[in-house]
């Protein structure tokens, strides 16, 4: 399994709530349907403010690439991006690999399906 961690920093004139409202209305279900395993979606309370952090789990790099292509092909997703991109001052992306002792989800993530490797 690999984990993708994305961080979005919003322009000061946009609030986190502005972004989240738009995302919940127009983006969330599209991402869930295409990307599958959301590991978490957070707002930063202490540290870099006006920031959203989210993580997605994939079986492999190939799985990630196929799922991202599927999402990018959806006209509704492209429409959502046209709305949200002007809100973003900065984006960063990391792909992380689990250590041998990291808990990893078994199949679709739920609160009860983690195990130690």
Strand content: 25-35%
What form results from the Cα inertia axes? globular
For the termini, the CA-CA separation is 11 Å
| Count of folded domains | 1
Query: What is the typical, i.e. mean, pLDDT?
Result: 89
Structural class category: alpha+beta
**Stretches where pLDDT falls below 50 for ≥5 residues?**
109-117
Find the count of extended strands (DSSP E, 2+ residues): 6
SS field, number of helical segments: 4
CATH topology: Alpha-Beta Plaits
Largest beta sheet, briefly?
4 strands, antiparallel
Tell me the series of helices and strands, N- to C-terminal: EHHEEHHEEE
**What is the CATH architecture annotation?**
2-Layer Sandwich
Order of strands across the main sheet: 2-3-1-4
Report what the structure shows.
The structure is a single chain. The chain has one domain (about 1-95): 2-Layer Sandwich (Alpha-Beta Plaits). The chain is about 35% helix and about 35% strand. It has 4 helices and 6 strands. The chain has helices at about 15-25, 30-35, 60-70, 75-85, and strands at about 1-10, 35-45, 50-60, 90-95, 105, 115. The radius of gyration is 15 Å and the shape is globular.
How would you describe this structure in keywords?
alpha+beta; 35% helix; 117 residues; two-stranded antiparallel ribbon; four-stranded antiparallel β-sheet; Alpha-Beta Plaits
Short overview:
This protein is α+β, with helices and mostly antiparallel strands.
Write the layout of secondary structure elements.
Blueprint (H helix, E strand, L loop, with lengths): L1 E9 L5 H11 L1 H8 L1 E7 L7 E8 L2 H12 L2 H10 L3 E9 L6 E3 L8 E3 L1
Antiparallel strand pairs: 1-3, 1-4, 2-3, 5-6
């Amino acid at each position: 399994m690999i984990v993708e961690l994305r961080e979005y920093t919003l322009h000061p004139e946009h609030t986190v709530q502005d972004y989240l409202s738009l995302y919940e209305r127009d983006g969330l279900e599209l991402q869930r349907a295409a990307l599958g395993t959301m590991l978490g979606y957070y707002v930063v309370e202490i540290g870099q403010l006006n920031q959203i952090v989210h993580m997605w789990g994939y079986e492999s790099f190939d799985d990630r690439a196929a799922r991202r292509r599927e999402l990018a092909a959806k006209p509704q997703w492209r429409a959502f991006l046209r709305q949200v991109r002007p809100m973003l001052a900065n984006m960063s992306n990391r792909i992380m690999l689990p250590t041998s002792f990291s808990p990893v989800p078994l199949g679709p993530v739920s609160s009860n399906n983690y195990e130690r490797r």
